[in-house]
Known about the structure:
By secondary structure, the chain is an alpha/beta fold. Helices cover 31% and strands 15% of the residues.
Amino acid sequence: MTGTILAIADSDSYLKYAVHFLEHLPQWRRQVMVVRSPVQPTSVQTRAALEGTFLQGRTPAVLPLKRLASNANPAPDVVLVAATGPVAREVLLQWSAAPRRPALVTALPGIALPATRLALSFRELSDLFLVHSLAEGEEFARLGALPAAPLVLSAGSGRPDTAEEQAAEGPDPERPADDGPDPADTPLPEDEKPASVVPAAAEELVPPAMALARLPMLRHHAPPPQSTAPVTRLVFAAQAKMPFEREERRTVLLELAACSRERPGVEVIIKLRARRGEPQTHRELHPYDALWEELTQEGLVRGNELSWEAGPLAPLLTPGTALVTVSSTAAIEAIDRGIPVAILSDFGVSERLLNSLFEGSGLLATLAEVRALRLPSLEPRWAHRNYFHEPLRVSSGWREAAAALDDVADLARRGELTQDPAVLARARSRAWRARLRTRLPQPVLRASQFLRQVTG
């Protein structure tokens, strides 16, 4: 038996994940809402996220967090919380206190390796955490069994965090974009502060149950044969963070421009996650379109070598295309379409770059090799462990996502889902930042987004 499922997202990447996940659940009654916040997608990003889905041509409601539950009609059996970690925790807290408590399901969009305890910590209140590959499942299960980091008090802000959270730097998918001065960094009103800090002795991570899903944009359980069509289009899937340094990103543009000049029959496209100034899950310190303007003004490129796209990726993944990236989930989507893929290794292969996952994939290549169109080939054994698992060959220790959803929905209808009081108290003590980010008055939010556009 199925029922009603409500997906709640905050940023563009999470919205895309949520809607495409629901696309595979036509037997459910489906609803989608977006949390109002500085990282909420623009109308252009929303249209791109919804393209080709049951919501194409319609716009999800964008609501402050406190109004999500009251606008759910009918009351959901399952709430899929598809949001950055701090916002996910706040949404889980709200629904945990709902009179008719639904089943709470969480997931990360795209590639979730390297796995972090932070991801599980933010989602302790969920009943089910979805992983999308055998490798992800094994890593998150291992992390859930490790001792937790002690609770410390962050200097200055009075905000409690684990040592692990304080040390988390770089492109952690749990950290929402930084839109400049953050109201969450200001002192909290006395009535917003919790009565006490959770003591270190109580800081034991209680990981949610896990189930094995699939990245919703994938069509195949095993990668199709790689296209042998001559490459006439080279697509670089850009990311907000990687590579980190300004000069590294300029090097990418210079090499791709050189490829375009040397091969007039090859169109080179920069596929942006967002244009300069648009909100993203992560703030982009060195936008490629801004760097391209610099290179053109400096006379290092003609300025017409590259094309720029910011819409959905799927229409570009046709025979004759090759995809290049540092570590984007776009690589998995391209493999699924039989498109040649190159994972750039020029800037290193590490967990910090989120591309250590691709070691052993056969897909690592240099910019020089890409410029010469010497493209690598996929290693099938790697693919089986990483996002292309065959359902009937998966270990019986993993529940399949669709069956797990039915199970937790049934438990919710029977009123048999509960919350650990200690976990609930810990989550309340840590939800300050998300609460401030999602309760910004609309004029302040608009001013924040405008400021980012003019200064981006």
